[in-house]
Amino acid sequence: MKQTKKARLEAAGWRVSDAAAFLGLSDEERRFVELKLALASGVRQLRERRGLTQAALAKQLRSSQSRVAKMEAADTSVSLDLMMRSLLSIGATPRDIAKLIRKAEAA
Amino acid sequence: MKQTKKARLEAAGWRVSDAAAFLGLSDEERRFVELKLALASGVRQLRERRGLTQAALAKQLRSSQSRVAKMEAADTSVSLDLMMRSLLSIGATPRDIAKLIRKAEAA
DNA sequence: GCCATGTATGTCATATTCGACATAGCGCAA
DNA sequence: TTGCGCTATGTCGAATATGACATACATGGC
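^ Those are the sequences you sent over. The predicted structure of the assembly is below.
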């Protein structure tokens, strides 16, 4: 049993229903995390490149600094939706976003 | 005033707080919608290519047929998270997803 | 040292999204 | 026509993500 791995994921905040589900879903789950990580670092990169503080970006998004911080940390409590909206708000084009996503390749 | 456009978006289920916010955010909002549309059609395309019914995909996702239908219709009630998870569950690679996103270019 | 600026982390009530279910529509074979 | 498989749409209570806020931490200038 992948108790160890499961525990690690859960400790990181990733909910896993039961062992079977875990085994069945772990692959996509892992890919999904990779994807979020890629987008998260993309947000930070672009934000800094634009010379924006987290608070400034938050204002653009009508969100809050804490949420931006969590987003860049790929916190499990932030959705892909918010990340995408952030990227678009910063001025990322679909092409830019596609490039970020391709970085989630491998794993 | 962009009353017409605003009304159209709201009729389609896109919440818009007030005129100023609308004017300020419409651009990203529109891009975001394009992006969801691109991913939604990607889900349908890949699902059909795999010979899966909505119900079958729903089962893989531990979701329901209705949610898959709404997802493919790019319903405002479905998140990008669910779309991404679906794509990954269907077997899309980051490269595939990137390609879909690039289709949201223009507008 | 202190203060300012920016970032990280935790919590909360509220808002949004969830899966589930019911049910309607649609195409097609018997 | 009826029946069947698949998809669409609407509505729920439950689950999750949200912005706001407080507060801790880090770095750098004074």
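Confidence is low (pLDDT under 50) at residues 17-25 of chain A. Chain A has six helices and no strands.

Shout if you want it in another format.
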